[in-house]
Amino acid sequence: MIRQHLPALQVILPLLAAPACLLLRRAGLAWLFATVVGFATFAIAILLLRQVLSQGDITYALGGWSAPWGIQYYVDPVSALVLLIVSGISAVVLPYAARSVAREIPSERRCVFYTLFLLCLAGMLGIAITGDAFNLFVFLEISSLSSYALISMGQDRRALTSSYQYLIMGTIGATFILIGVGLLYVMTGTLNMQDLAQRLPAVATTRTIHTAFAFLVVGLSLKLALFPLHLWLPNAYTFAPSVVTTFLAATATKVAFYALLRFVFTIFGAEYAFNTMPLGPTLMLLALLGLFVASAVAIFQENIKRILAYSSVAQIGYMILGISFATVTGVSAGILHLFNHALMKGALFMAVGAIFLRTGSMQLQHLAGIGRRMPWTMAAVVIGGLSLIGVPLTVGFISKWYLIQAALERGWWPVAVLVLIGSLLALVYVWRILEAAYFDAPAKPDAHIKEAPLSLLIPTWALVLANIYFGIDTSLTVGVARQAASLLLGVQP
Amino acid sequence: MSQALLLQGVLALPLLAAVLIIISGRSPNVREGVTLISAAGLFALVISLAPPVVDGARPALTLAEPFPGLPLVLELEPLGLLFALVASFLWIITSIYSIGYMRAHHEAHQTRFYACFAVALSAAMGVAFAGNMLTLFVAYEVLTLSTYPLVTHAGSDEAKRAGRVYLGLLMGTSMGFLLLAMVWTWSISGTLDFDPGGILLGKASNTVLSILFVLYVFGIGKAALMPFHRWLPAAMVAPTPVSALLHAVAVVKAGVFTILKVCVYVFGLETVTTLAATQWLLYLAGATIVLASLVAMTKDNLKARLAYSTISQLSYVILGALLATQTAVIGSAMHIAMHAFGKITLFFCAGAILVATHKTEVSDMRGLGRRMPITMAAFFIGSLSIIGLPPMGGTWSKWFLVLGTLETQQMLLLGVLMLSSLLNIAYLLPVPVRGFFSKPKDELADGVKEAPLPCLIAIVITALGCMALFIYPEPLYRLSNLILSA
User: What Rg do the C-alpha atoms of chain A give, in angstroms?
Assistant: First the structure.
């Protein structure tokens, strides 16, 4: 009975739990409640993934209203994987939040914080599960609005301006998406993704559809921070509270990337996007540019969170590069990197948050001697950093392997070379952090900095170990990614 | 014990040792006891695998399968056995030496030192036992990362800068070239297994294979082929036992070992000889041999001189692999062992001199032979082995390499080998000769005497090893011979 309604529960649970957090009035209770909900959504996501893998795609009519009239939820391997990573990250971040939020957010705002967090989670899960183009926009707005508010809760006053910056850019993106969806509706009379996919070919040559395509791609690129539309991201990640940075960095751009996959492959179809429209070369150019510019900028930053933020822009380049190949290997490399990058950036931002908890600073120069004082936290940074570089036995290596393979399959070896040079740039900015932590002598030798508490270390290391586990046993990730990619491209796996 | 279990044990034992070393960090005696016992245990494990491999068995074990159809797998063959035997035996000797050196030199962070050393050995065993290119690559990268803390052991600015060069060049070449070459091979041939005939024969045009071959040779930065050799002199800031075992044996030999593996098992010797790039790479290896020797002559710092000598000697092995005949490959494989014993002796001596007199420059070592006769005598023996003079082991490997150049009519390279031997004499022999026969520049302090006993024991064992390898080269030759006859 309950099994049947899992798709609805996946979204409804955090959505309804969010206002309940406000009613609890006590921060500790709100945290406990939110954590339980986070774990429940994770459990639901696992069940859904298992169901999809064993029994095939799930279609769910919300409220019993079937497709043309009601909203349809649709779970296939791609969405199941995104649901898993988003809810998984929330289940790891929430236990971590207790201490970190207590340090960074004033007590009267903590209940609101958990409310917004759950709303944001509900929005992202909704994007991943819905089968309706307009509904996707609604969920995108739910997650975006709550993330603007979450970012503004940062201690630094610059959090407000960066949140405002994100709000402006995000709203432009959302408006573009809405215009795109509107134009699609005008031409086809439907908002259901599968119906859209069926009716679009008939009108595909019209200028309206071309325009809709352009609006959607640009709008989603803004949301997923594709270079040069990434300008909101570095500030937002730098000044947001540590928990928010971790959660958004590991999920927000990934969900937007998923939405792009859905629109490009499921609704418009690879044929239209890559042969009629010049999406392939455009994305490839921007992805490579972003990869290099953002990595180069990351090398010269003095704030660790900023280094990692620019690194995120670069890593988004890898994901986009994957889909720009428009082959099964390429798209599965993109999906794989979506999953893997969430693991590495999640681990890194959590470790960095633990350092902030103890030192109160994010500047590289204040990191001196941390390697000695916080050995476990820094070990997490080391492994996360190695994963970012793409060292074997970590998830980063798996992503890079498939990206290079995809480039070589197409015969584009210069692209493969550029991908590798990109990982060497990552080596440089990761090593700046490590050198600061391990080599430089601390400025104040008697500072009372000790290892982070277990409530921070355990979640961080859970993700660190996931980085290693999924770097060795890839049967789940690679299996699902390939299946998903074949599905998106309409090829038999 | 089953062979699969033994294979696992060879990787797991040093890792277990690292954990125990960290746990027992507060008690130096226990910690160093753990190191010695696990070193001896590792050698015993490798030895116990030798008879079946010589009899033609190829024990194998699949560890995991990160990519569909491309597992992480261990498989032992004669060349890997040879490398593993040399590295694990010399780990025992180096452990004895380290105890004397690290204590006498009052080094800090000794627990980290011993632990990283053990991890590095596990990685070296992984390189030796790798059953396909992917496994080898994984172990290769672990070796780079686990030796980084050893290179930067001092924690000074100089160490930090050296660490950057070390990591930058080794990771840069392996991520930039070797990984690309590997994925490319995988997409051309659909396998990365080591196959005695090669896996690329006829799979792509000569041009593509040539590019691929160049990518492999430069991608294996640990082989220190010019122009990617700078990391090796940089790594000399490390404590001497690290320079001795890792940067004269385990790490650099992992590099040339990988090149041999690629030539023999990935391309196949037949393919190597037909590639357009081979001749150019041969000349590059020849140039590295001569140039590195010339640079070595200009270095007054003893460890720097030995480092450039190592660069030069590594290219001997590369040369043999590229000549791609049975004789040359035997010479290459034997040179891995011969050079290991010779060079580790020289580094041990350099460290002993440093500990006893705090001198690092060759010009300050005049007259030292009277105070440190055993050390200087061992240095003499090691030098002779590197030069390739009887009665030292180095003679045999050079013999086969020279035969290889004759077989393939590479007269220019024959000249290079001869010239290099002369250069070796010029930069190595002055050290013991002046040590014994010159008057000290300024009177040596009265307290100068031989290095601590553990250091001397280690020096004597490796020096005797150089001689023993001249008298009994038979087992080594038979093992090298098995590589191609299998």
Answer: 21
